[in-house]
Design a protein that fits this description.
The protein has 397 residues and is mainly α. It contains 15 helices and nine strands. 50% of the residues lie in helices and 9% in strands. The protein binds glycine.
């Protein structure tokens, strides 16, 4: 989520006219976005008033939904708002506003680190597109809830409140995605404390979450008394030492975004290291859409994760803009390939099918036997974000 993207402020100074080397043109991108609008109108008809979509079960044509407390609750309104920005279709905005009413109470939720996904991906674009200051107030209260989970001894925001013996202060790589919200809160409120916490979290994570080959562990558990690392494990990946695909994508997106927000070179270098690990990995398939884990057993006879592909595509477009020299073209081309693959019938459902979701073949939590090879709201969200970024950053006049 990038509110500057939503506000369109970058289009004058940084965007580039369509370039002969670019692999995707306006007609292609606009067609994908237009189809997404049509498909989300199919979904709109299916979503119960008091619920948010999460996934879809094709076998019995069943929409899987959640309440506002799910980590995924912000993606549906967020996608509607991205599509409203593209199309100007007021019915998308109206539906998003209805869902924001359900989500509003999560501003007081101090029991999760996922408030960036839940609130910033939804109320953030709503504020940017409508200027409604009640959304600003929700966001600032939510940012306060989020930083209540920061421990200065550890130098991180706690991800999960775990009651068993396994973890004391678990921090997952996904948590990098909350930091943009905190950077926004500092700019909006004039209080440095939010960005200070974001910087500490990013720096602690850079120190402890990454292996020498620049892949990341999923979970790092800390001792809150001393700040020492207690263990490094996985929760949703194939093994503690494997490279869970969506976790790598969150890290890539997170450090790219932190460089944009701070201009601190170490974050750019970190993001480039992650990108290079992913793009040069022998197990990255030719179409650019990763298996659910780069070290999954049974490759190539295992599941792809379209959500990881969509997050990577969106992140690589931004990393391309922020990187100089040959790297810029390399990252852009990799993202273009991913967007083209995701837009093909291999990954994208025909309009009217798939419960109104755009993408097929997402993997939520394979070791937990949950959401395997299914549509996912966050896969759709980052796919639409990638299309919108491409349109604004690479095709705007
Ligand atoms: N943050 C949870 C996930 O990526 O599955």
């Amino acid at each position: 989520m990038n509110l500057l993207l939503i506000a369109g402020l970058l289009s004058g100074s940084c965007s580039t006219r369509q370039h002969a080397q670019y692999q995707l043109d306006s007609a292609f991108i606009d067609q994908q976005l237009q189809q997404a609008v049509s498909q989300y109108k199919v979904m709109m008809d299916k979503v119960p008033d008091d619920r948010l979509p999460k996934s879809y079960r094709a076998g019995d044509d069943r929409l899987i939904t959640s309440g506002s407390g799910s980590w995924t609750s912000g993606f549906y309104p967020g996608t509607l708002l991205l599509l409203y920005e593209f199309s100007g279709d007021a019915s998308l905005l109206a539906e998003a506003k209805e869902k924001l009413r359900l989500l509003e109470k999560e501003q007081h939720n101090r029991g999760t680190h996922d408030l960036g996904f839940m609130l910033y991906c939804s109320f953030g674009p709503a504020l940017a597109l409508t200027g409604d200051t009640s959304y600003r107030s929700v966001l600032l209260t939510g940012a306060e809830s989020l930083i209540s989970r920061f421990d200065p001894e550890v130098g991180c925001i706690k991800s999960w409140d775990h009651n068993g013996d396994k973890w004391k202060f678990p921090v997952i790589i996904d948590n990098m995605m909350n930091l943009e919200y905190l950077s926004w809160a500092s700019k909006e409120s004039g209080q440095e404390k939010y960005l200070d916490i974001a910087l500490k979290h990013a720096n602690t994570t850079m120190k402890n979450h990454f292996r020498p080959n620049h892949s990341s562990w999923h979970v790092v558990d800390y001792d809150p008394e001393t700040g020492a690392v207690r263990g490094k494990q996985t929760h949703q990946g194939a093994a503690d030492e494997s490279a869970w695909a969506r976790g790598q994508a969150w890290g890539l997106y997170g450090y790219t975004m932190m460089y944009r927000e701070t201009q601190e070179k170490q974050y750019l270098i970190q993001a480039q290291h992650i990108a290079d690990f992913l793009l040069r990995h022998p197990n990255l398939p030719e179409d650019g859409i990763p298996y659910w884990d780069f070290d999954a057993p049974g490759i190539p006879d295992t599941y792809r994760d379209a959500s990881a592909g969509a997050i990577m595509a969106s992140a690589l477009l931004e990393l391309s803009r922020l990187s100089g020299g040959g790297k810029s073209g390399e990252y852009r081309k990799a993202a273009e390939k991913m967007i083209r693959s995701l837009s093909s019938e291999q990954y994208k459902a025909p309009i009217g099918e798939n419960g109104g979701f755009l993408l097929l073949h997402g993997v939520g939590h394979l070791p937990g036997n949950s959401e395997i090879d299914v549509p996912l709201t966050y896969a759709d969200y980052y796919y639409v974000e990638a299309l919108s970024r491409y349109k604004k950053w690479f095709l705007a006049n």
